Amino acid sequence: MTTSPFVKLDGVAKRWNGQLGVEGITLDIPEGSFTALLGPSGCGKSTTLRLLAGLELPDEGKILIDTKDVTTSAASDRNLSMVFQSYALFPHLSVAENVVFGLKVRRVPKKERLEKLHRALEITGLLGLEDRKPGELSGGQRQRVALARAIVAGQRLCLMDEPLSNLDAKLRNAVRKDIKKLQRELGITVVYVTHDQTEAMSMADTVVLMKDGHIQQVGSPEDLYSRPNNTFVAEFVGAPPMALFQSSVLEGFGEDKTIGIRAENIQIVPRGEGRMRCTVNESEFLGAETLIGLDHAGAEGLCVLKPGLSLMAEGNEIDIMFSDENLHVFDAVGQRMVG
Ligand SMILES: Nc1ncnc2c1ncn2[C@@H]1O[C@H](COP(=O)(O)OP(=O)(O)OP(=O)(O)O)[C@@H](O)[C@H]1O
């Protein structure tokens, strides 16, 4: 028996005066999952989320939430909560008032409001700060207030648009873990927009990678990393990015293909025993590893990872080796061919 997805987008398109926002967006999102919409600026992530939220209406296609066709429903009728980058807190209201604002509007009884407030503040680690105003909180605490507000709303679907982008790197890491933990504990379905692949890869069960208003690949973080559908996905996912080069550089791969290889699949071998001779162009110490950047006349972006501190002099010539099974082969238009 197949269960129907909790959220379904079917052939959704949105244009403004003929200019493309998104097109052909078809996506099934299971209940209780964490889905990240990932891609570069302008690829259509926010438009997709806004269509799901009911803040925009599609020109084509259908949107279903919990089997109900909500394609033209108002945002308020879609039973979802939203968390934005900007927090969207009322500056003159306290933390507690901000969190229960929606419940008050919905005339939820005071006793229930206080219970829900306490639980949400407990979950988000904000107990003790209920009387502060947003201006008296750090960026991370403000974002936690926005999360607490989404939690008390009690909706099964929560949409998040770059909720961490105003926070510094350390805080981003901490709140990232909080969000993931919350999503698991509450069993809610999260659709999360980000342009940060580390964020998407570390939080999501499913990553939807977009470019120019179209979906490029839908899969687990591991799928996108290990079996990219095309050269765009191959280069976008992973740091350092996969090196891509013309197949003519290697024997036996023909002329018109693109070959991809990741740094961790390349070894430095004794002179004369490798498949390519390269020149070291930089060494970057990353902590646990050193990244050695390589120049080759036929291939850009090649690099090798060496354990620990292992700097190599710029200009050094080295031979590198890799096995065919670690190569990604793309056809003349950049689509994955094998494996
Ligand atoms: N209200 C609008 N009017 C006209 N064009 C729009 C509107 N909103 C978005 N677009 C266009 O639709 C495309 C997708 O925009 P969208 O905001 O969804 O991208 P994004 O991936 O979320 O980018 P970013 O990461 O920069 O927020 C862009 O070309 C954008 O200019």
From TrEMBL:
User: Which GO-annotated molecular functions does the record name?
Assistant: ABC-type transporter activity; ATP binding; ATP hydrolysis activity
- The EC designation for this entry is 3.6.3.20
Tell me yes or no: is GTP-binding among this UniProt entry's keywords.
no
Q: What class of enzyme is it?
A: hydrolase
- InterPro entries for this protein: AAA+_ATPase (IPR003593), ABC_transporter-like_ATP-bd (IPR003439), ABC_transporter-like_CS (IPR017871), ABC_transpr_MalK/UgpC-like (IPR047641), Mo/tungstate-bd_C_term_dom (IPR008995), NA-bd_OB-fold (IPR012340), P-loop_NTPase (IPR027417), Transp-assoc_OB_typ2 (IPR013611)
Which keywords fit this entry according to its UniProt record? Answer: ATP-binding, Cell membrane, Hydrolase, Membrane, Nucleotide-binding, Translocase, Transport
Q: Is Transferase found in the keyword set?
A: no
Residues forming the ABC transporter domain are: 7-237
GO cellular component terms listed in the entry, alphabetical order: ATP-binding cassette (ABC) transporter complex, substrate-binding subunit-containing
Q: Which domain of life is it from?
A: Bacteria
Among SMART domains, the record links this protein to: AAA
Pfam families from the UniProt entry: ABC_tran, TOBE_2
> Which family does the record assign?
Belongs to the ABC transporter superfamily.
Protein name (record): sn-glycerol-3-phosphate import ATP-binding protein UgpC
Organism per entry: Boseongicola aestuarii
